[in-house]
Amino acid sequence: MNHLTVGVLTLALTGGAHAHVVQVGPPDPHFCETIERIKPNLILKVQTRVSGRITDQTTAPFQQSFVELRRYFSEAKQVSVKRVKTDADGAFDLGLVGPGTFRLLPSPTRAFRQPDSLVCRSDGRCHLDIELKVNPTDMPESTCPVR
């Protein structure tokens, strides 16, 4: 069976629905950089053990979900420092992190909004209880990479 035949069968089974993709204006290769301002959301003054727990608005834990810590240099440049997975209860442990300016990304997708600011004590220990809020996924920026 060739691709044309499969397409005809699919249309026949779905009632012949049609869709068109329309692009207005020229494609902008810098669209994702222009729609949001990236700022650091975690500043550590001293070497700190960073751990925490991630839940959604219903208090359900983010199970087996990636958490990434990036060193923040500028809006256009952040470099991954550590990447870990949460456990079945949504807990994560990034271990010891040196002082600096960072961007902590507790959600690997744009389905949830990244936190604007995370606060740690300056005593070398930081436990973050992060409740992520749902983002709309039908907006043009929902296709952009997580920053």
What's the total number of strands? 8
State the helix count.
Answer: 2
- Structural class category: mainly beta
Share in β-strands: 35-45%
Would you identify the CATH H-level superfamily of the domain at 37-137?
Immunoglobulins
- Major sheet: size, sense and barrel closure? 4 strands, antiparallel
N-to-C SSE string, H for helix and E for strand: HHEEEEEEEE
CATH topology (level 3) name of the domain at 37-137: Immunoglobulin-like
Low-confidence stretches: 1-13, 22-26
**Residue-averaged pLDDT:** 82
Radius of gyration: 20 Å
- Helix proportion of residues, in percent? 10-25%
Q: Which oligomeric form is depicted?
A: single chain
Cα shape = globular
Reported CATH architecture of the domain at 37-137: Sandwich
Q: Could you give the order of strands across the largest sheet?
A: 1-6-3-4
Give the distance, in angstroms, between the N- and C-terminal Cα atoms.
43 Å
Name of the level-1 CATH class of the domain at 37-137: Mainly Beta
